[in-house]
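pasting input
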Amino acid sequence: MTMDMLAKSDLRPVRRRRGPAVGPGARLTLLSAASIAFALGLWFALAASGLLPKMLLPSPWDVAQALVKNIGVPFAGATLQQHLLASLGRFSAGFALAVAVGVPVGLMMGWFAPFRHAFAPFFETFRFIAPLAWVPFAALWFGTGIGGPILIVFSGAFAACVINTYRGARMTDERLIEACRTLGAGNWRLIVDVLLPSALPSIMAGIRVAAALGWQSLIGAELIVASSGVGYLIVQGQGSVETPIVMAGMATIGFVGLLIDLGLRQIDARIGRGWRAGA
Amino acid sequence: MSGIAFTDVTRAFERKGGAFQALEPVTLHVPDGEFVAIVGPSGCGKTTLLRLAAGLDHPTTGSVMVGGRAVTGPGPDRAVVFQQFALLPWKTVRQNIGFGLKCRGMSDAEARPLVERYLATMRLEGHGDSYPHQLSGGMQQRVAIARSFILEPEVLLMDEPFGALDAQTRIEMQEELIRLTAGQRRTVLFITHSVEEATYLADRVVVMAGRPGSVREIVDVASLRKAERWAERPVEEVMELDSFIRIRTRLWRLLRSAGAHRDDAATHTLPIAS
């Protein structure tokens, strides 16, 4: 596989860089667009065929209408923007907390062996507990306050931050660590100036996974505890058998999740643009 | 007071199927201000010796003293220059050169004039804000040397520092090193594969034999260098001198027998290899 790719790029370097207007990249984008169009068409056709009752499979048109309508007219006590804002607020708080605690913990685990041995058993166990399992306790401890959802998002995102930071830190070139030690670097300098930048690609990958997991967990949590939010919107839609609104909520989750990931990818691409080219 | 003293030093590494003896008892003394080069076949323990002096490794038995004190760990009093440069890829040339000063707690404003001076000394003006990957190998190694010299170490430990450079750059760097060490006399331990490089640079050349590593012979070059003023002449001229060629040939002979010794040992320890 790798050999094949290497061989190709060796043989045709010029064509790859200065290909015709419709190069392989453009063609692949076209394929993606066609695939989406096909899926939508299939959905339309299925819904229009009348094989399934409208309630079981609302048509894309109904879903789009429900979505647009909810922007102006409140459903379950709030407009779509308000639901989304409530969800994003909870998500941001829990996600930021997970990154702010998870990255330093991961770095410490990567550098200090005692720290690693003290914390690793917890992560090895806790990562198998789905964030949703915390919902009963989140409700007990925090009631309907903001604390519950934050705890859920945090529990979903934290492990990914820690584990990816830790792995990145452990992969730091030993020669760089040695060189800096001979220059008089202490633990703090080594962690901040060597381990952290070296682990950055892995940390950013972890943060993207954490964002996806945190976003998923939040919506799950809102199905149960919240009084607003996209998850809450879906539950209320289910309660009043408004399946188009349920699907509109699902589409919103998917689309906003994608936007969050795209934003993080942009940040990732910007960090260390100067030096990463040759690192 | 910055001599290096290895006394009855051994180093054994744990390996699958038992310990591997990298150094048999080695006793070597590098007096204050002397430039000593170590040559020897691969796996003769020369890098191990340097790492022990740097404090990056610890002897199994015996003692390693630098400046009269036992080595317990790495420190900025003993600068190390590595073959693979080991610059921080995410720091600019300036930041790399100033890194040791920053570790000392010096502020950017305090460090700045010193960093600028070393940029000039190492002929790196105009590259202060570049990242290491934007520089040639020779320039990267000049950055690595600058970041060591800026700390004014008493001891300089160089592990095949020019091994990754092309022939022309290598010669330039050798002359550069002569220029730099002539200014302030420093104790230097210099590991190399190149007999010419060792002869040209060192006061004494230590020839090591392999498996386990040991000192085979020490060849004195200092008296000739002084008498014929090698330091003031270009490399190519020095390399044509009869005295230079004689020493080089002698070192080659010693190395050859050291290598043969190594091969005997290798076949002895690996009877399965055909």
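fyi Confidence is low (pLDDT under 50) at residues 262-274 of chain B.
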